Amino acid sequence: xxxxxxxxxxxxxxxxxxxxxxxxxxxxSTFIIxxxxxxxxxxxxxxxxxxxxxxxxxxSCRWKRIHIVLLEHEYEFIxxxxxxxKMSLAKVIAxxxxxxxxxxxxxxxxxxxxxxYRCGGYSFQVFLEEGIQCCxxxxxxxxxxxxxxxxxxxx
Length: 155
What we know:
By secondary structure, this protein is an alpha+beta fold. It folds into two domains: 2-119, no CATH class; 121-155, no CATH class. The protein has helices at residues 11-23, 28-42, 72-85, 89-109, 143-154; strands at residues 2-10, 63-71, 122-129, 132-139. The strands form two sheets. The protein has a two-stranded antiparallel ribbon. Helix 1 (11-23) crosses helix 2 (28-42) and helix 2 crosses helix 3. The radius of gyration is 17 Å and the shape is globular. The mean pLDDT is 84.
């Protein structure tokens, strides 16, 4: 099932993202989710505890509202990024473009870049540790699955 959400993005960032999405033959939604997933997986996202969600500066430039279509697991991933980083989706996108655009574009150029479902391994685990309820998020395949896959290929 697809989920839709809206966010605002500066016209400057929108032009950049549209240009590279077209160049890479990706939809705007696919480009954005893959970009955020790349940054969450390979770079350092700012994280904050005990604070409210922060938003883009309200009057810093002109903004365009865009609609993004996400698969269920992509939507959950985006909600986790918002929760962990304490940033709105608009601010997450701006942060990624401002800090990691060229790293992401270089990663897309690599020959081994064949994964069409980058968030497909998303899962979470809820457990008790010394009486405290905990939740672990895996923004990729679960470590036990990776270990099992490694042991099956070695035999």
